[in-house]
Amino acid sequence: MTRTYTLGKRAEQQADTRRRIVEAAVALHTEVGPARTTFSMVAERAGVQRNTFYSHFPDERTLLLACSALSLERDPLPDADAWRAIRDRNERLSTGLSALYAWYERNADLTGCVLRDADAQPLVREIVELRWAPYHVAYDEVLSEGLGAPARALLRLALDFFTWRSLVRDSGLTPEHAVRTMVTAISAAR
Question: Concatenated DSSP letters for 144-171?
């Protein structure tokens, strides 16, 4: 009896292997960061040989793009367009910061490692700018409407992950109190 070869089954296996590799890399990026994650670590965690790893990801950029895509597919950054219709400036600020701070909370470990490594690694910085910068440009555009220079500066500070971490994780504020604190400061600085 002859065995029939189907590309569908092989393609499914390849997709499954690729998914395992990306999930292993994301887990390691969350634990130790992209700068400290080696291809060997990813291959071992995914349960594949290094040559299999390289057949799916020939370089670090390809892997980082796949990891960032998976992370944002699982939990997309908030969409600033939803806040445009909110006329009251403080309500719009509160809604936007609340959504962003909730995202930071859900993604704190991975975001902290990635942003730490982006400071030292140009490739990680490139991927962060590619994936996150458009969102932050939109946040700034939508939330800064009608604000003067001092208030815009405070808004940029409020949008920063490390500000959230300082207020919530390091200082023990609730996310709601952190949002109110930043909205109050921004409103006072107009």
Answer: STT--HHHHHHHHHHHSHHHHIIIIIIT
